[in-house]
Amino acid sequence: QTSRYPHLPISRMALKQGYLEVCLKRASDLIDVEKIGKQDPYCVLTCGTYTHRSKTHTDGGADPTWNEVFAFRNVVSNLALKLEFYDENLIFRDVRIGTCKVPLSTVAEAGTLDVTVPVIAKDGVEKGTVTLKMTFTDKTDPGMSSAAAKSQWILPNYGGKDCKKDYDIGKILGKGSFGTTYLAVKKGTDKTCAIKVVSKRKLTTPEEVEDMRGEVQILHHLSGHPNVVNVLDVYEDKYNVCIAMDLCTGGELFDAIVARGSYSEKDAAAIIRVIVSVVAHCHQMGVIHRDLKPENFLISSKGPDAQLKATDFGLSTFFKEERTYTDIVGSPYYVAPEVLRRAYGKEADI
């Protein structure tokens, strides 16, 4: 009998259902159209109904190292782990380098297996190799012993809390790529707030999970400034992360600008003064916002004394003065040129 995967032995064991943990260690000799060794490779891992995406290895060249751990629950040993490698391209479409598959049958039989498999392009040409460590546990949940299982909660300090026990959820106020914001009322009171509900199912990559953690941490870190939206409560249940925040009923600054059409120099200066004070507060607290735009400033009410409130810190990060940042984040039409050049610091907010 000939194996479809000649780099691995053939297994004839009975089917097993269990828990698969994959450590994506490194790749070697990845070949892409990029000839100067500055390709930005990442890997998409699929097994059954689960899909994960590794971090992008910026300027990782042909020999990137990840050492990232991914968990696949309730998989069957007759499946295969599929790995697809891409070179990230922020201007054109990401370039597909190649793919490979590892059958779970051999891993399930061995328990733990270190494997190195070839990455094959669409035309059948080998484009390098990838090294993995795979562990198959013959049960649906191995407990909390592995590195992947430790991440049961995205926010361990808030894990297992249900916001519906404290709040009555009302109408939808807005929708974004990852979350939906609802009007809510604190139970036993008449206090209203906004609750941002982020589906954990949509947080499919390590970067997205870290962004979620970072957003909550930074919102707490910046609290107290009159022009930063205040966090009231944070919750995480089996399916969602929920953030209760100040309710801003005046809408987005962007919509206010469009509705007004034009501003006098005096009125425009007053708005810019508030925005600059928020930027100064962020930088004094060691945070770069990285997505400043009128859509991310809310108006607290519809009254004449309404305040601007900065929101959406999902792309923000803590910074160090001596460090140059290279990851490209932000929004089209607003992002700073130095961000696109992959060399920036806190000044990109200005």
From TrEMBL:
One Pfam family recorded for the sequence: Pkinase
Transmembrane region(s): none
An MF annotation (GO) of this entry: ATP binding
Coiled-coil zones: none
Protein kinase domain location: 167-350
Positions of ATP binding: K196
Name used for this protein in its record: Non-specific serine/threonine protein kinase
Taxonomic source organism: Chlamydomonas euryale
